[in-house]
Specification:
By secondary structure, this protein is mostly beta strands. It has five helices and 17 strands. The strands form three sheets. Strands 5, 6, 7, 9, 10, 11, 14, 15, 16 and 17 form a ten-stranded antiparallel β-sheet that branches. The protein has a four-stranded antiparallel β-sheet with strand order 1-2-3-4, with no helix packed on it.
């Protein structure tokens, strides 16, 4: 028994834009296979003009066919590669994309025109994340890479040399001095302008802090903020270490330590991209089919990124301001006077 699905993907896969199983075909499968269920289809790397895939349940093979129905090749189930990126993404970096959010994407008109050209202009409801297709959802995700904060203005810096006292150890005229050295930074992240998509959603993001103290150190901080105006979060990074120095006190001398601290403060700006990805569903009031096909169905799923291939067409932005402070402790030394 061969179950025919559209080219490249099984209808339950997140990677194919169309779902063609209708009530009749599901009933036929049920009666003939007595309970065999549609399994998640495993992604194939196929030529663009391979049009159909048949699942040979008995042989546990997938048969790929050209548009004219001739054979391209067969794949064993073990040759397929599983890939479900939406389910694997960190929940803190993504949020379900609502049908209203889809309409706010810059390229929605292009996406809608594509669907209407392909399936007709009949009345349809746009749906995202339907409960009956849990693996065919849509999400809004923040950039998972480092979001660079760019310096806004010239840093204000101060530098001073501080005295560090020590403690006598035993009776042998030895002093122990503890020094803290290294780099620490604090960044206050504030939402200046929120994204129109995923309003009120909290996202975790990693921000890059530039070398504002000009000491050759750049670092990153991670914080969770909410996509609403003026939301604010304070993030810190501390790469300092504390070390001890033992000094023998010369006769008639007093010893102490010194350390130089350079502290800088500056404002900054960043932009965080929120991208829509996954499937949206057009639920038509009347069954429809692609032009030139008689295979009509009520529901068609479209993979957003397969139509809006330019990420900017499916992205909105959060504008962020930041107040950054860095502190570098270095040049520690022991002094006896």
């Amino acid at each position: 028994m061969l179950l025919l699905f559209p080219a490249g993907r099984h209808p339950l896969s997140r990677s194919h834009p169309f779902c063609i199983l209708n009530a009749l075909s599901v009933l036929t499968i049920f009666l003939m296979l007595q309970g065999a269920a549609c399994m998640p289809f495993l992604r194939l790397d196929l030529p663009r003009n391979v049009t159909y895939i048949a699942h040979d349940v008995g042989k546990r093979e997938y048969v790929t066919l050209w548009a004219d129905g001739s054979l391209y090749r067969r794949f064993s189930e073990l040759e397929m590669r599983t890939l479900d990126e939406l389910n694997k993404r960190d929940a803190s970096s993504c949020s379900p994309l609502s049908s209203d959010d889809v309409k706010k994407l810059p390229g929605f008109s292009k996406l809608d025109a594509h669907v209407r050209d392909k399936y007709g202009k009949g009345k349809a409801n746009i749906v995202t994340n339907p409960s009956e297709y849990p693996d065919k959802g849509a999400v809004a995700c923040i950039d998972t890479g480092v979001i660079p904060i760019k310096i806004d203005g010239k840093p204000t810096c101060t530098s001073n040399k501080a005295t560090v006292s020590g403690q006598l150890t035993g009776t042998g005229g030895t002093i122990r001095i503890s020094f803290t050295q290294g780099y620490a930074a604090t960044a206050t992240i504030a939402v200046e302008k929120w994204s129109e998509v995923a309003v009120g959603v909290s996202f975790a993001a990693t921000f890059g802090i530039p070398d504002i103290a000009e000491v050759g150190v750049e670092t990153t901080v991670t914080g969770k903020f909410t996509n609403v105006n003026r939301d604010e979060v304070v993030t810190t990074v501390d790469n300092t270490v504390t070390q001890d120095m033992l000094m023998t006190i010369p006769k008639d001398k007093k010893c102490h330590g010194t350390v130089t601290t350079k502290r800088c403060n500056v404002g900054g700006r960043a932009r965080a991209r929120i991208s829509g990805t996954g499937y949206i569903w057009y639920n038509f009031e009347s069954r429809t089919a692609p032009a030139g096909s008689s295979d009509k169905h009520y529901k068609w799923a479209i993979l957003i990124e397969s139509v809006l291939t330019n990420q900017d067409d499916r992205s909105t932005w959060i504008d962020i301001t930041s107040d950054m402070t860095s502190e570098m402790k270095s040049n520690y030394a022991g002094v006896c006077e």
